[in-house]
Amino acid sequence: EGHVGSLVDDSGWFYKPLQDGARGEREIEFYQQFWSDERVPDEIKEFFPKFRGSVLVDTANSPTPTNILCYFDQPCIIDIKMGFQTWYPEAGEAYRKKCEIKDRESTTGTLGIRVSGMQVYDPSTRFKWKADRNWCRKLDNHGVEYAIRRFVSTNPFDDENPNALLASKVYEAAKMELEKLTSWFEKQTFYHFFSSSVLIIYEDHGAASKVSVKLVDFAHVTYDHDTIDENYLAALKSLTSVLSMSP
């Protein structure tokens, strides 16, 4: 209905349609600045989708980050919105109030993170269990801990007893990646991230399991501050702590 949707070309590049107006323009601005910024270490840039400029696809201007799922066959993905505050300082009053209500009524206000999406592959049925938006919205602090367990379970369709068999394997690798990000956020003052997400992606292949951590959603990044991004840094530490509690 008037939207192009996301496309993956034959080379594995992911075309993400921009949101209309200023939000889309801000996301392109971030990609252009970030990937040309020599102050950002290469090992940190690996956490961000690569950028090839913007193209015109069926009249929708789209940034073209790397397809971050191209190395996975049946990826399990959890989308975690980061920060105790999701509204950016320049936001209008209506948007700010909307975010304040959502932050206050969700685990954003208590944990600094909230689960906004999740899918888990069940190897026994070869189906994917997906958490819909309403399911995610109902999660309180204990619910987030439950979601974190269910995400690393080989029986994701079992509501009562998700087994969390992959917790150690997946989350130890994810925490190592989060520690790299945390070390950078403890020093950098170039970017402050609002309403951005961390994706944890994995695929279980026994001893050869793949685990990846990526940052996405950059329409509300602000630039060149004199202080570190305490909001995002606190969220990273909170996420690491929550992952550590998973059995």
UniProtKB/TrEMBL annotation:
One of its GO terms (cellular component) is nucleus. Pfam families: IPK. Keywords: ATP-binding, Kinase, Nucleotide-binding, Transferase. It is an enzyme of class 2 (transferase). GO terms for biological process: inositol phosphate biosynthetic process. Its EC number is 2.7.1.140, 2.7.1.151. Gene3D superfamilies: Inositol polyphosphate kinase. SUPFAM superfamilies: SAICAR synthase-like. GO terms for molecular function: ATP binding; inositol tetrakisphosphate kinase activity; inositol-1,3,4,6-tetrakisphosphate 5-kinase activity; inositol-1,4,5-trisphosphate 3-kinase activity. It catalyses: 1D-myo-inositol 1,4,5-trisphosphate + 2 ATP = 1D-myo-inositol 1,3,4,5,6-pentakisphosphate + 2 ADP + 2 H(+); 1D-myo-inositol 1,3,4,6-tetrakisphosphate + ATP = 1D-myo-inositol 1,3,4,5,6-pentakisphosphate + ADP + H(+). InterPro entries: IPK, IPK_sf. Belongs to the inositol phosphokinase (IPK) family. This is Inositol polyphosphate multikinase.
